[in-house]
């Protein structure tokens, strides 16, 4: 195509209100940095970067399917065979998604919270609360005076279940704040009734001990097992050596004090146990093994407490700066990621999560309006609000084939609701619902999967998922890829299917991009310039055909083959090397479609 025709095509695209537009990129080349996953002190993380002035949704979709990902207006791709932690693009076909038991539990937990059956913010002062206790717990409080025998020996009273959940919430808060390790599967708390024969062993003083929890003991044991397994010997770190059931229980105590107040209970730590005492006089009777306690006669106004349902609203809005979102982002980074306050600014926030190169596509402006969801295509922020309180924000891109999840930040007070998992379920559900409007919209992209990083493996729990082969750009079922990744972090995932005749054609096509391409455009010998000549004279250098790369020279768009001859051999070689690398990382089709901006 001549430069005149190329320019005419681009002008035609822009004439439709910049709905389609054009992608303009500048090649930043290789980048080395420290790795946030393996924490290597050296610059072991290696990637290739592009700075994007603008990017069509179709071109970004194509980049995703070649292993790229964006951060603001910067798009990057790990050099998989060189970087310390190979990062594989992972996706899920929404219509095939089958939620696991844990994912179903996350959904049910949030539904219980919205129904008023679960409280997740025990750290607030009682007088500041605007949320009520679960109905089953209120019923337990009402039954405390003169409580009768349990009908079953092992019956778990609602109040015990509720107290157990609150301890679990506090454990999660300690993990998020760094007070407890985050790389350990913590045991669940279990609050139990205390029979009279054991009360003196577990508590000191004259108060009536009603409930106890020994969660600190299995937590300490789990931490020590993990440290021993990871280091091959007992951890000698002084801080970890000081970790004991008593110190763990003390960490959990402050929140439990506030919870106990509502039930006329006082809370103390004794011999590593978290104990709940009656704050007033009680009478108790023990009968065999099925004894039941009579709980305290409280002066609380429990009969006046009402269960109040909460309302969850999810709002999808175009990416833009929102002060309320920024304040939530700061709290999240400070409390969950332990960032320093001086490292967080509006500028860095905008650059990371607000700025976008994607050209907005409204639902009424696409070439085929039947293939656009009601919101259109582009970059969005999805707000999660409970009773109008902003509790989470998902930063996402909606593209012709997928919803691509970029980042999520949430209110640390709601850590126990597993909002990261819940938002993923909502985003998958969004794709399922919008497929009727946009038939090409099939997939949910979860970003990068890093098999060598344990914290990133959770993404494979969304099944059935696929990983992108880093060489042939085929999608490979995770179950087939996992055995390869178990052997080594970097693997050509499509190797497992080389013998399959059904995939041989696709493999041959994708492999052709990596083979030596020595032919130039011979349709018009008069248009051949130094690039064609160089490629023919020295084919042993394994050059790819760069003659059709589209270049911007500060205005006009030209193919490389249409450029005037560059006389300076040094400049010529330098430009040629840059274009060869660029074509290699973005592929032949994109290199001829996107505009390569020379700076």
TrEMBL record:
Biased composition (Basic and acidic residues): 511-521
Ranges where the N-end aminoacyl transferase N-terminal domain occurs: 33-105
EC assignment: 2.3.2.8
An annotated GO cellular component: cytoplasm
The UniProt record lists the keyword RNA-binding: no
InterPro entries: Acyl_CoA_acyltransferase, Arg-tRNA-P_Trfase_1_euk, N-end_Aminoacyl_Trfase, N-end_Aminoacyl_Trfase_C, N-end_Aminoacyl_Trfase_N
Domain (N-end rule aminoacyl transferase C-terminal) ranges: 324-469
Enzyme class: transferase
Catalytic activity entry: an N-terminal L-alpha-aminoacyl-[protein] + L-arginyl-tRNA(Arg) = an N-terminal L-arginyl-L-aminoacyl-[protein] + tRNA(Arg) + H(+)
Keywords tagged on the record: Acyltransferase, Transferase, Ubl conjugation pathway
Chain positions covered by the region annotation Disordered: 507-527
Any single Pfam family the record assigns to this protein: ATE_C
UniProt cross-references to SUPFAM superfamilies, sorted A to Z: Acyl-CoA N-acyltransferases (Nat)
MF annotations from Gene Ontology: arginyl-tRNA--protein transferase activity
Role summary: Involved in the post-translational conjugation of arginine to the N-terminal aspartate or glutamate of a protein. This arginylation is required for degradation of the protein via the ubiquitin pathway.
Family according to the record: Belongs to the R-transferase family.
PANTHER family in the cross-refs: ARGININE-TRNA-PROTEIN TRANSFERASE 1, ARGINYL-TRNA--PROTEIN TRANSFERASE 1
Name this protein carries in UniProt: Arginyl-tRNA--protein transferase
């Amino acid at each position: 195509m001549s430069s005149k025709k190329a320019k005419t095509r681009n002008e035609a695209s822009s004439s439709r209100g910049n709905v389609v537009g054009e992608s303009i990129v500048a090649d930043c080349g290789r980048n080395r940095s420290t790795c946030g996953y393996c924490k290597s002190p050296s610059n072991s993380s290696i990637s290739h970067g592009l700075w994007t002035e603008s990017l069509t949704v179709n071109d970004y979709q194509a980049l995703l399917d070649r292993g790229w990902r964006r951060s603001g207006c910067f798009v990057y791709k790990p050099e998989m065979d060189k970087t310390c932690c190979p990062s594989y693009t992972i996706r899920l076909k929404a219509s095939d998604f089958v939620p696991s038991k844990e994912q179903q539990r996350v959904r049910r937990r949030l539904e219980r919270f919205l129904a008023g059956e679960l409280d997740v913010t025990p750290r607030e002062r009682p007088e500041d609360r605007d949320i009520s206790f679960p109905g089953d717990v209120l019923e337990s409080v009402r039954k405390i005076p003169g409580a009768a025998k349990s009908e079953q020996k092992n019956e778990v009273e609602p109040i015990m279940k509720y107290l157990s959940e609150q301890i679990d919430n506090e454990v999660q808060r300690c993990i998020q704040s760094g007070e407890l390790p985050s790389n350990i599967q913590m045991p669940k708390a279990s609050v139990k009734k205390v029979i009279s024969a054991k009360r003196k062993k577990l508590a000191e003083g004259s108060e009536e001990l009603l409930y106890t929890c020994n969660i600190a003991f299995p937590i300490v044991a789990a931490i020590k097992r993990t440290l021993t397994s990871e280091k091959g010997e007992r951890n000698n770190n002084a801080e970890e050596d000081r970790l004991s059931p008593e110190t763990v229980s003390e960490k959990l105590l402050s929140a439990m004090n506030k919870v106990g107040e509502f039930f006329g209970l006082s809370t103390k730590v004794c011999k590593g146990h978290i104990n709940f005492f009656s704050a007033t006089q009680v009478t108790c009777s023990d009968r065999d093994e099925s004894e039941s306690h009579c709980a305290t006669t409280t002066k609380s106004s429990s009969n006046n407490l009402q269960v109040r349902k909460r309302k969850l609203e999810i709002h999808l809005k175009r990416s833009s700066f929102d002060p309320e979102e920024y304040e939530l982002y700061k709290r999240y980074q400070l409390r969950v990621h332990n960032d320093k306050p001086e490292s967080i600014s509006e500028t860095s926030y905008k650059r990371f999560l607000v700025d976008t190169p994607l050209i907005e596509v409204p639902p009424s402006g696409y070439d085929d309006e039947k293939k656009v969801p009601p919101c259109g295509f582009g970059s969005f922020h999805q707000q999660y609000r409970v009773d109008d309180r902003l509790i989470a924000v998902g930063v996402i891109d909606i593209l012709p084939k997928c919803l691509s999840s970029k980042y999520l930040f949430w209110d640390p007070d709601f850590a126990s609701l597993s909002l990261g998992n819940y938002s993923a379920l909502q985003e998958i559900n969004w794709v399922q619902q919008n497929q009727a409007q946009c038939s090409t919209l099939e997939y949910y992209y979860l970003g990068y999967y890093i098999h060598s990083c344990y914290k990133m493996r959770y993404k494979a729990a969304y099944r059935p998922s696929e990983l992108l082969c880093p060489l042939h750009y085929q999608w490979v079922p995770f179950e087939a890829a996992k055995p390869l990744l178990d052997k080594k972090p970097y693997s050509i995932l499509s190797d497992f299917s080389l013998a399959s005749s059904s995939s041989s054609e696709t493999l041959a096509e994708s492999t052709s991009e990596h083979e030596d391409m020595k032919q130039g455009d011979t349709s018009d010998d008069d248009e051949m310039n130094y690039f064609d000549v160089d490629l023919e004279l020295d084919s042993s250098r394994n050059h790819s055909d760069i003659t059709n790369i589209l270049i911007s020279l500060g205005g006009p768009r030209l193919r490389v083959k249409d450029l005037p001859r560059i006389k300076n051999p040094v400049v010529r070689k330098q430009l040629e090397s840059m274009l060869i690398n660029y074509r290699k990382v973005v592929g032949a089709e994109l290199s001829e479609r996107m505009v390569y901006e020379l700076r």
